[in-house]
Design a protein that fits this description.
6 helices, alpha+beta, globular
Length: about 170
């Protein structure tokens, strides 16, 4: 790796460490449950960090809707995107990941596509269970498709579940 690549990676790792420290602080802070986060701003920052970390292009589509979500929801959506990008690069050798958010009819549609190799088997049998569990913990559903030239993950979550503070820990459904 060149010095420039090492510097980019160092910067990305520093941002990730800062994010981890901030997340731990939010979890420890009892007031954090009532704080909301702008989905567009937080995901744009994460896309930039993931681009630098994986040395790929992570693009947020222009039609991202402004939505204030709870701390728990933001954390889970960010972790979902981190894992989706990691899988696209490590398993599919993707160089481009596109993230598209939209909300209509009271639902958030979160679509992640990549230009990797896709799956050899049926996606339902091969995609990480942790992705499905994370989205189910938010009350959502996930559809995974292996397409020629990539993979497409589509998540659908009731906006009210993302914007209403819950006393249940992440992943608990009752």
């Amino acid at each position: 790796p060149t010095k420039s690549e090492i510097n980019k990676l160092d910067s990305a790792l520093s941002k990730e460490m800062k994010h981890i420290r901030e997340t731990l602080k939010r979890v420890r802070d009892t007031e954090a449950a009532e704080k909301t986060w702008d989905l567009e701003i937080e995901m744009a920052a994460l896309a930039e960090t993931l681009s630098a970390y994986w040395n790929i292009e992570v693009v947020l589509c222009e039609n991202v809707q402004t939505l204030a979500v709870t701390t728990t929801s933001m954390f889970n959506l960010q972790q979902f995107l981190r894992e989706a990008v990691s899988n696209a690069v490590r398993h599919g050798r993707a160089a481009l990941v596109t993230v598209d958010f939209s909300s209509d009819g009271g639902y958030l549609r979160f679509v992640v596509t990549d230009n990797g190799s896709g799956f050899r088997e049926e996606p339902a049998k091969t995609y990480p269970k942790s992705l499905q569990e994370r989205i189910a913990g938010l009350g959502g559903t996930i559809d995974v498709q292996s397409l020629p030239g990539g993979t497409r993950l589509e998540v659908l979550i009731d906006v009210q579940r993302l914007t209403t503070p819950s006393i249940l820990p992440s992943g608990d459904t009752g």
